[in-house]
Structure formats: C-alpha cells, structure tokens
Amino acid sequence: MLTKIEMQAMEAVIGIHREMRQANEVNWEQCRYEIAKEYYCRRFDSNITTFNEDARRAVECADILISELKNKKMQ
User: Fold this and answer.
1) How far apart are CA 69 and CA 35, in angstroms?
2) Total-model pTM
3) How far apart are CA 54 and CA 48, in angstroms?
4) Residue 27 pLDDT more than 90?
5) Closest of 33, 27, 31, 41 to residue 59, by C-alpha
6) What is the pLDDT of residues 1-18, one digit of tens each?
7) Which burial class, exposed, middle or buried, applies to 24 when counting CB atoms under 10 A from its CB (0-12, 13-18, 19+)?
8) 56-59: long-range contacts at Cβ-Cβ below 8 A with a sequence spacing of 24 or more?
9) Taking a C-beta distance cutoff of 8 angstroms, is the pair 28, 66 a contact?
10) How does DSSP classify residue 50?
C-alpha cells in the first residue's frame, strides 16, 4: 500500500506528464487564426474584393495550409 506522500508524488508526476504531452501538441486553432490573420492583413490593400470576401478567402487558405501541414506530420 502506498503512503499519502507517495500517492501525491505519483499524482504530481502524472500531472506533469500530461502537461508536457499537451505542450508538445500543435494548437491547430491558434495556427488557423494566425495564418488567416496574416493572409487577411496582406490582402487588405486590395481594392478588387470586399472585406467579407477577403476574410472568407483568408480562412479557406488557412484551412488548406493546415490540412497540408497535418498530412506532412502524419507521413
């Protein structure tokens, strides 16, 4: 049987392991936001399209790029 201190230490180790695993995972939603924002800001000078069209296109491009990045990561 484990002592209370040993149980607490084991729980701490498990918690640290979980946090480290999460820290190494890619936050795809954050990536999507950053990519779309960057694309939108670069396209903002264009007078050819509307703001809504630019925003939709930025998100579409971000989704396409993330899809490719995920495929490369799996290979």
Assistant:
1) 12
2) 0.62
3) 10
4) no
5) 33
6) 789 888 888 899 888 888
7) exposed
8) 59/32
9) yes
10) -
